Amino acid sequence: ANFQERMQLRRSLIELEDQNVQNSIEIGKRQLIIAQWNSEHGGIKSPRQAARDKAALEGEDDGAGMAELLAGAPSDVRRAWRDVGALRRAVEKNNSTKRSIAKRLRHNERQAESMRQDLATKITGEDRIQLMELQYRIGKLELENMELEQSKIVHDSVMKGKDLTIMKLRLQLQVRDKIIESQRAALAHHGLDRAVSYRSLALMEQEGVAVSFDTIRGGGGGCAPPRQPGGG
Length: 232
Description:
Elements: H1 2-41, H2 47-57, H3 64-69, H4 75-122, H5 126-160, H6 162-189, H7 198-213
Helix pairs in contact: 1-4, 1-5, 1-6, 2-7, 6-7
């Protein structure tokens, strides 16, 4: 019973971790929707404003920045932000559940080790001792197999994120091109366009553009419509 409970606790941790990875992907998809709209309608941003927008997307401000960012946004963009909030709450709930399960698992493992040591002192006969050790090794192998399963789940989720990462990079390039075009037009208006290296301008703006849309830690699953928020 102790072993079965331990296996179930570990499986619950795997499922919660997988759900958190998927939720993080969905958060990234919705942040990309907001960033795309902001890129198309927000005009050219300074590096400082880009950093403020990033903080708003990450929920690291007091909410005023997000209100400013979403001013005049269409319903699908506002809905994307509401989904971000729901998904973050789901992640927080899962994390709380994971902490509780991990605590139970540690207690279970201590009990199992205590029982094994107790049996080792009580069991007599070489055959019985070998049987006990064999059962212990089988249990250990099953636990290791479950850990490999967890690693595979996380790896598969990260691989799904490649498409979302590519979309983010394309958006960064689009914003960079808008910045360069705006600067080119301003310089041409003042007759200075032949005296400036646009490559240098691009390099100067690159850092500010990148920070504006570096909003997720994992990846996402292509261009499919976002899933509904989920929790554990």
